[in-house]
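Example 9 (inverse folding). The structure is encoded as follows.
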């Protein structure tokens, strides 16, 4: 799912969880987890743009296996709204990605990606380049990202920088 989709879904989920648990903090945390979980793309972008090694699919936060420690945290905290919100937001993000991105059915398991050595060419269609194209579609994406990439690479300024 693209970033704006995650914002919409996470906002709805955050409001719902906040009302259901009577905890605005849990609702806010749910929103933050749902939106910012995609920050785990940054290492792949770094490898692609800075190290010129575009074949990694680490996405260390995109894994159903992470629900186990989250649920354990919830259990140990007597199902406090905060760990519940984190687990629900994480699961919702994964399910949105699972059903909107055309990937192998096991792609969102860390163990499957580890088995495939986290290599894009063995995992399928997701690529840092494709995700970067999605970021370019965000408001100000075309204006901000290319100059940032050039700057991180230590390249000279381009037109419009
Ligand atoms: Zn995602």
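The amino acid assigned to each position is listed next.
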């Amino acid at each position: 799912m693209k970033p704006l989709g995650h914002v919409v879904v996470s906002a709805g989920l955050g409001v719902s969880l906040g009302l259901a648990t009577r905890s605005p903090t849990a609702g806010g945390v749910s929103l933050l987890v749902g939106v910012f979980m995609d920050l785990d793309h940054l290492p792949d972008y770094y490898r692609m743009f800075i190290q010129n090694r575009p074949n990694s699919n680490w996405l260390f936060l995109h894994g159903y296996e992470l629900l186990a420690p989250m649920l354990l945290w919830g259990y140990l905290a007597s199902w406090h709204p905060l760990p519940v919100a984190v687990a629900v937001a994480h699961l919702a993000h994964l399910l949105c990605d699972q059903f909107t991105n055309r990937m192998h059915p096991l792609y969102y398991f860390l163990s499957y990606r580890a088995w495939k050595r986290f290599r894009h060419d063995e995992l399928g269609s997701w690529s840092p380049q494709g995700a970067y194209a999605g970021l370019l579609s965000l408001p100000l994406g075309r204006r901000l990202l290319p100059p940032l990439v050039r700057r991180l690479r230590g390249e000279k300024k381009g037109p419009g920088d």
